[in-house]
């Protein structure tokens, strides 16, 4: 299946987060973002009021990765294996392209902002797709049906947010992917046994 081209907004977001990782947030200018995204100043300001507005777009960056994975994940994988794969892929993206300190600032902003709380927005592809995978697991009997798919998704999302928070607290010194690859199977064992 052909990959859908990135929208202009998505190009700006991807370029910004890549620059934040390489040059730091303070070291990245709007001019840098415009140049890296191959857009114009007017286009940038059409989508964002300034550089600070990009801090709330990290969930867009994550969902871009989910969009890339959606058509290529083997549908015959078990629900457990799909969740393990998605977690591994997105945490790898985070560990290799998101500054841990900046992630910490973004987490703090999610708690204090009156803006959209993107990380808990259930309309995101992340929530919709993972809930669908969990529901498939319940329907097939792979996951015990003592909890709803939405309840299990809340637990799964809480697990991921907790690991990301710890990673930010450690300023990126723990290996996020390795840590999660070791711990997530235990959480999914609980889904199999029933919550």
Describe this protein with a few key phrases.
about 200 residues, mainly alpha, elongated
List the helices and strands and how they pair.
Layout: H1 8-23, H2 30-37, H3 41-47, H4 58-69, H5 79-97, H6 100-112, H7 125-140, H8 149-169, H9 176-193
Helix pairs in contact: 1-2, 1-4, 4-5, 5-7, 5-9, 6-8, 7-8, 8-9
Please provide a written account of the structure.
- It is a single chain.
- This protein is mainly α.
- The protein has a single domain, classed as Orthogonal Bundle (Tetracycline Repressor, domain 2), CATH 1.10.357.
- Helices cover 67% and strands 0% of the residues.
- It is built from nine helices and no strands.
- Helix 5 runs antiparallel to helix 7 and helix 5 packs antiparallel against helix 9.
- The protein starts with 7 loop residues before the first helix and ends with a helix.
């Amino acid at each position: 299946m052909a990959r859908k081209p990135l929208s202009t907004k998505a190009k700006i977001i991807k370029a910004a987060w890549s620059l934040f990782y390489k040059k730091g947030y303070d070291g990245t200018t709007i001019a840098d973002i415009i140049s890296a995204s191959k857009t114009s100043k007017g286009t940038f300001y059409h989508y964002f009021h300034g550089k600070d507005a990009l801090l709330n777009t990290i969930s867009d960056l994550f969902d871009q990765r989910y969009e890339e994975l959606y058509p290529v994940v083997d549908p015959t994988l078990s629900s457990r294996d799909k969740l393990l794969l998605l977690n591994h892929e997105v945490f790898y993206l985070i560990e290799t392209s998101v500054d841990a300190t900046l992630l910490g600032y973004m987490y703090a902003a999610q708690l204090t902002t009156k803006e959209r709380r993107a990380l808990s927005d259930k309309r995101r592809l992340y929530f919709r797709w993972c809930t669908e995978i969990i529901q498939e697991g319940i329907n097939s009997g792979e996951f015990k049906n003592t909890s709803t798919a939405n309840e299990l998704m809340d637990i799964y999302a809480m697990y991921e947010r907790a690991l990301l928070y710890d990673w930010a607290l450690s300023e990126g010194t723990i290996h996020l992917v390795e840590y999660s690859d070791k711990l997530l199977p235990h959480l999914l064992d609980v889904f199999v046994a029933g919550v």
